[in-house]
Design a protein that fits this description.
The protein is 38% helix and 32% strand. By secondary structure, the protein is α+β, with helices and mostly antiparallel strands. Strand 2 (52-62) and strand 3 (68-77) form a beta hairpin. The longest helix has 11 residues, at 3-13. The chain is globular, with a radius of gyration of 14 Å.
Length: 85
């Protein structure tokens, strides 16, 4: 994803305390490196409407050198679970 588009989306959708960590989490230039030796990446944040979001990135495809070339991002509302704890 283009970095400017990422910043625009994060600034529009994510509350201030979580913006920097969200940009870092979705930085497509570092995802493959951060996934090395891992099955997935996780991140939690709060949206501007107060929803608690659990984000996950899972590798989907690897090249001939076992490097990640495709991922599946997923987001889930976990507001209720967070409020119970």
């Amino acid at each position: 994803m283009d970095h400017n588009i990422l910043l625009e989306q994060v600034n529009r959708l994510i509350t201030e305390p979580f913006r920097q960590s969200s940009v870092e989490f979705y930085d497509s230039t570092t995802i493959a490196k951060r996934l090395e030796g891992k099955d997935s990446l996780f991140h939690t944040c709060e949206s501007t409407d107060g929803t608690c979001i659990l984000s996950m990135i899972v590798p989907q495809k690897y090249d001939e050198n076992s490097r990640v070339v495709s991922v599946l991002p997923a987001n889930r509302d976990f507001t209720e679970e967070k409020n119970v704890n």
